[in-house]
Amino acid sequence: MVTEADLQRYVGGQAEIQNPAIGYLYRGEIKNIAIEANTLVLKFNWMAKGDRYPPLPNRWVNDQKIAHTAALGFYSDDNIGPNQDGGGDRLRLQSPIIGETIILFPPDGSKLDPTKVEGLVLA
Q: Can you tell me the distance from the alpha carbon of 97 to that of 46, in angstroms, rounded to the nearest whole number?
């Protein structure tokens, strides 16, 4: 099982949260990450939602959701290696029960460019 110490290397990177059955895809920059009462707590500097997902988003739009939680008892975790763009190893958390997959990208890994997110205003 992943530990909070393992997760700290993803701060400043991004997370992708998807559930094709329900039809959501989010991507955001990780501000803080913690485990509280066996729940993963992700807080974001900004969050984008993939429009018209699935199959693939046709654009990214700003979303006011700046936090996400996941009860770790429902998820398995595994290291899926670096992205094809390089960077450090990614961590995948997957729940067949909920149908959700969360992928954590390190700061030097794959990134959604925030300037391509419609309606996002960075301070």
A: 27
Question: Taking a C-beta distance cutoff of 8 angstroms, is the pair 67, 32 a contact?
Answer: no
Give CA 44 to chain center in angstroms.
9
pLDDT in tens, 72-101: 999 999 999 988 777 889 999 999 999 999
Rounded to 5 degrees, φ, ψ at 7 are: -75, -25
pLDDT more than 70, % of the chain? 100
Give the chain's mean pLDDT.
95
- Tell me how many degrees the CA angle 38-30-20 measures, rounded to the nearest 5: 75
Length in residues, the chain: 123
